[in-house]
Amino acid sequence: MEVRVLGCSGGIGGLDVRTTSLAIDDDILIDCGTGAGVLDVPALVAIDHVFLTHAHLDHIAYLPFIIDTVGDYRDRPLTVHAAPETLRIIRSHIFNWLIWPDFSAIPDRAHPLMRFNELRVGESIDIGGRRITALPALHAVPAVGYQIRSERGASLVFSGDTTLCEPQIAAINAIDELRVLIVETAFPNMQHDLALAARHLCPQMLFSLLDRLIVSPDVFITHLKPAQAAEITEEIATYAGRLRPQILKNDKVFRL
Questions:
Q1: pTM here?
Q2: CA–CA distance, 52 with 31 (Å, rounded to integer)
Q3: How far apart are the first and last CA of the chain?
Q4: What residue ranges define each of the domains in the chain, with the CATH number in brackets?
């Protein structure tokens, strides 16, 4: 199993700065931010499943464009998996015939181009030997993280957007063969209060999370706000704990 980073920034800016999307092999996306725009049309047509962590625009922005682009090429619907609250939000505010057509009813509800599947915390879906499990997260809107487990038993965890979340930390610590942890850190320490209000992490909160871990994955940091990326990177470099977090980069590939 391969996990490729299509986008991992907290903002946009040319080809190098694009928002969150991870590709699992050639048929699954985790989130659908502007990073998904690097895929050409044949690659987009091959996507059968999209798992959303939450409904914020930087994580769903390209989903409407993808389904509009690929629908007529496909012989089965694209399945969008997310927590019930997230699906309610995107159906009410995106696929509502005002912002974008409701592709779950096109050409008709019996033969849609897109379908929605509710996935609650703790629930898993097996797709071709890969298991995707929704993990707890704590954000400004209902949110989840994901554990992605390969057929060989190795796992990658993506925190999604979250502040310190004790249930998520407990879930991470319970995973055998956790090889990779991708965790957000959106703000520098000087914006600690904003991080708390927005339910994101800053480096000192990240350090608290890492200190609670008993597992030993490779740790990669995502979702840095572009204007503060250098400052956040410098602060993360001061961590003196057991794990050694690295800044995630576009096009990084994890093989599990």
A1: 0.97
A2: 5
A3: 5
A4: 2-255 (3.60.15.10)
